[in-house]
Amino acid sequence: xxxxxxxxxxxxxxxxxxxxxxxxxxxxxxxxxxxxxxxxxxxxxxxxxxxxxxxxxxxxxxxxxxxxxxxxxxxxxxxxxxxxxxxxxxxxxxxxxxxxxxxxxxxxxxxxxxxxxxxxxxxxxxxxxxxxxxxxxxxxxxxxxxxxxxxxxxxxxxxxxxxxxxxxxxxxxxxxxxxxx
Amino acid sequence: xxxxxxxxxxxxxxxxxxxxxxxxxxxxxxxxxxxxxxxxxxxxxxxxxxxxxxxxxxxxxxxxxxxxxxxxxxxxxxxxxxxxxxxxxxxxxxxxxxxxxxxxxxxxxxxxxxxxxx
Amino acid sequence: xxxxxxxxxxxxxxxxxxxxxxxxxxxxxxxxxxxxxxxxxxxxxxxxxxxxxxxxxxxxxxxxxxxxxxxxxxxxxxxxxxxxxxxxxxxxxxxxxxxxxxxxxxxxxxxxxxxxxxxxxxxxxxxxxxxxxxxxxxxxxxxxxxxxxxxxxxxxxxxxxxxxxxxxxxxxxxxxxxxxxxxxxxxxxxxxxxxxxxxxxxxxxxxxxxxxxxxxxxxxxxxxxxxxxxxxxxxxxxxxxxxxxxxxxxxxxxxxxxxxxxxxxxxxxxxxxxxxxxxxxxxxxxxxxxxxxxxxxxxxxxxxxxxxxxxxxxxxxxxxxxxxxxxxxxxxxxxxxxxxxxxxxxxxxxxxxxxxxxxxxxxxxxxxxxxxxxxxxxxxxxxxxxxxxxxxxxxxxxxxxxxxxxxxxxxxxxxxxxxxxxxxxxxxxxxxxxxxxxxxxxxxxxxxxxxxxxxxxxxxxxxxxxxxxxxxxxxxxxxx
Lengths: 181, 118, 480
What we know:
The structure holds three protein chains of three kinds.
Chain A lengths: L2 H22 L3 H21 L3 H26 L11 H26 L16 H10 L2 H21 L4 H4 L10
Chain B lengths: L5 H24 L6 H4 L18 H30 L1 H23 L7
Helix pairs in contact in B: 3-4
Chain C lengths: L8 H19 L7 H19 L5 E3 L4 E3 L1 H27 L6 H18 L3 H19 L6 H32 L4 H10 L4 H19 L7 H8 L2 H26 L4 H24 L4 H18 L10 H29 L15 H4 L1 H15 L5 H15 L3 H27 L11 H19 L2 H9 L5
Antiparallel strand pairs in C: 1-2
């Protein structure tokens, strides 16, 4: 076992533990905080796979912006605490556990028996994932997708504003005059 | 490649170490006197009232959505800045177009009053 | 590096107009609000002119991300025309329901610009982004009648299912990239034919793509959201959605499968076959039980998706695929025309606060408004596929290409489904002419009447001489 492998195993354990922490926590805020940790851990894993840009995006967009949105939505709904004793989910939970065991056994079989060692030798991307390479690809070949992204973002902003107008609720049903505020 | 990012790694390790060491020092050497007032939640000097988990206004959500918008823009700005010298004017136009669309979003939000707090 | 923007010129016109109108609508005073729909329609007309100017102009552009051929021109002409029709549908409706915001038209333009990209997409990344660009505004438009609860509910359902299906689609794209290390259609095809691709993964990826688009298009068994969403959305949005969103998904899927996936036809043809049969049968049978006209038309739309899916079945058969593509896109045009006509009737009959949407409310309308009744009769006949309407020719060419491909059982299922559909389509007409009903006053508005009239005339006249339109569809070849 070289240093890389040790490093990876530590990160992998951290990722699994934080993911489990997110799932098992009954307080939605704590679950969200665990998710941030998980995103950060996965970000570091990307980093060790020579994909610094993806790692950076993972941290800024997911652990940063998306999680802010998550936290606001949780607080917006007032859904911090999960009630205890959900009866109808019991059977589903049993089925889920069974399926998870099957998945685990299958994954273990592939990784340990069929192609042992594969999972400890990640493909080295080399120059492929550097910020420079991504910049070159993004502003040469993928210029159209890049610009489309901005339009999607804009449509989403317009939608968010349209669908969260507060003052319109009182005035609903009247003439559709635009609010000039 | 990893060596390029060594300073960042050192920075992260230092930050984590600091966050662990300083409270530990305080814990080890500081005096401890518990009074009820100290264990109450701190609300800028006011007496706390109501539960801590009130529902917040939907306006926070608006702010968060706008934050995501500009966060994504920042993510795209990074590779752009890195290769800008190499690609030159076309890249400037491309990024200008992208920024223009995003700024239209900002203008819209602004004019609609999404940034105001009544 | 030279950039050739001609392939996406119509897209740029529509998207640019959307941007400009978004800002203009913020700043001009209330008395100028009527300019927004006018300028939106004008920009669509401009895009249509440019689009038609690109006929027989075959070119790939922007690093082979997009491609224009007659297929994309024909499809885009349908999308642009449906955009114009949707503006006519909405103009009066959103004023009288109190949701007259300029954003309505802006979001619609965004959605149409996404459709224009869908048909030209030669790369799976573009397919995904275009699908998002067309869906995100539609989620918002569905919830546009906020704070009406069923509109909010519909928007939420549509959004959740739509996000889920986007995820499935993206997963398929990722698998295809993993299997072939390409996202471009030609790259995937070449990797598959060179034998460097991981074939099981390609099949799985293609199946995920199919499921993702099937969700959006309301194909059984992924159709559960459609009736609720169609019912809850503002009726003018429903009309737009039932044509545009559905058509765009199928157009992109057709290009993907015909260009990139003939090598996996063995595995996926039977899946397509099954989905098409199931969709036609379930859609038509479920429509029978509906009392609400919007739900009925929603199920009818599901069934129509099944007919369109029939044209996908021979996607691996090079000998007849051109016929199949032509019949599918011809059917799309036929469906779009009749559909907008029918939705215009629904919008005209709808009363305040969502009344007048039950099929029972149509009782007696045909006698009091004979022209409206005759128009509805024409649309319903076209949906069933009876002569002398255009719908007959749509089904005729479709079934012909299916039979040419030797899928006799599928054709029989399709005919059976059409027979079933006659019952509920004709029930509306029977209700309009042979029953007495409460006095519902039909909304008179020159745009709506114009839309109904033009659609009815088109269905009837083109039904008498379908040759030119079908010739155009037959020329609308996909560039392989």
